[in-house]
Amino acid sequence: MPQSVLLINPIYGPTQTELEENYTVHKLWEATDKTRLLTDIASDVRAVATDGGSGASAELLKQLPNVEVITVFGVGVDAVDLDYCKAKGIRVGNTPDVLTDDVADLAVGLCLASYRQMTNAHDHAKNGLWETQGPMPLTAKFSGSRVGIFGLGRIGLAIARRLQGFDCHISYCNRKPRQDVTYAYCADVKKLAESVDCLVVALAPTPDLAGMIDAEVLAALGPAGHIVNISRGLVINEDVLIDALTENRIAGAGLDVFANEPSIPDKLKELPNVVLQPHVASGTVQTRYAMGKLMLENLAKYLSGEELTAFVA
Ligand code: 8YV
Question: Residue 224 contacts by C-beta under 8 Å, 6 or more apart in sequence?
Answer without folding.
Answer: 140, 197, 251
